[in-house]
């Protein structure tokens, strides 16, 4: 293998690892994967999880 191929492979692994790490960090912070924090969006299931939980707790009050 040429040195340039090794550099490209290492760069690719670092980019993919960075994207995965950012995704995990955002998930722990409670951010949505779409990045728009659209809690009123009816089309996006992941955005409505927190809103649905709030509605469920209000039903019992």
Short description:
The protein has 61 residues and is an all-alpha fold. 62% of the residues lie in helices and 0% in strands. It contains two helices and no strands.
Protein architecture, described:
This protein is mainly alpha-helical. Helix content is 62%, strand content 0%. The longest helix is centred in the N-terminal third of the chain and has 27 residues, at 3-29.
Topology:
Layout: H1 3-29, H2 49-59
Class from secondary-structure proportions: mainly alpha
Percent helix, as a range, is 55-70%
CA distance, first residue to last residue: 67 Å
Q: DSSP helix count?
A: 2
Low-confidence stretches: none
| Cα Rg | 19 Å
Question: Could you give the count of β-strands?
Answer: 0
Mean pLDDT: 75
| Percent strand | under 5%
In this structure, how is the largest beta sheet organized? none
Topology pattern, helix = H, strand = E: HH
Characterize the overall form: elongated
